[in-house]
Amino acid sequence: MGFNILLVILGLAGLYYGGEWLVTGASRMALRFKVPALVIGLTIVAVGTSAPELFVSIRAVLGGQQGLSLGNVIGSNIANIGLILGLSGTISIVAVKQTLIRREIPILILITLVASALTLDGSVSRNDGLFLLAGFIAFNIFFYYIATRSDDDVDIEVPDEEEVDTTKNSVWVDVAYVVSGSVLLIIGAELMVTGASEIARQIGVSDLVIGITIVAFGTSLPELATSITAVVKKEDDIAIGNVIGSNVANLLLVLGATASIRDIQIDGTDLSIIEYVVMIGFTLLLIPFARNHQLSRVESAIFLGAYIAFIGYSFFAPA
What we know:
Blueprint: H1 2-32, H2 37-49, H3 51-62, H4 66-91, E1 94-95, H5 98-117, E2 123-124, H6 126-149, H7 171-203, H8 207-219, H9 221-232, H10 236-261, E3 264-265, H11 273-289, E4 294-295, H12 297-316
Antiparallel strand pairs: 1-4, 2-3
Helix pairs in contact: 1-2, 1-7, 2-6, 3-4, 3-7, 3-10, 4-8, 4-9, 4-10, 4-11, 4-12, 5-10, 5-11, 6-10, 7-8, 9-10
């Protein structure tokens, strides 16, 4: 057991630093070739922050561990709202802009419902995956259009050109960051899936439970660190925008790319209606909880408490 826990920890480290290096190198290369910072935020950063979930899900589905792959996506979305927003809001009240309430959150709700509906036939097929990927592209095009044509604030975190100084290093250093980050992501995903699967086998729980709990928590660590830091610095837009953007990317990009590679068969994964209800319920609650343009400590505590209860249920509920 101890060795497998070590594999999970090493896998987490590889996923975290791999994602960081990939985003750093790709962002520097993009700025070096005069790609607008907004485009970097909508593409490279969005993909980079979802890279841990993406690599873990692809590795799991290629290994025939359908439950772990799907559980990682569903569990990450639950963790992003229940754990990350819940914990962030208990630290400090999170201000919520009107644009989030009337635009971004409804879009997330729609995507969550559509992605959930695609699984009702017992699988997420290649065609479903391609449809979700097309949705991810359309989502980014839409927000690029909004950001360039409208005066509204769009909550997208983009790199600061002053912080990303391309004059201090050669392009080969940037390439090394991208390559090293990609390699670390691959190794981290392999270690994470191997260790988590063995832990699941040894303690007698399914791959789905491990995916929804341990793996989902691990792959959500970059978002957790980002949101907590943002709340402490009073950058609430980044704190909540990070969560919404990550959930959209998990459903459209991660699930879409994974299913495009190989059909995800849901039958036999122990997935029940409970997981869907919690994911959809958490997402729907964002609107009434943010109705006063803030996420209070009480509402955040409800999210956090519900998340802890869900994790407990996942581990101890009868199979």
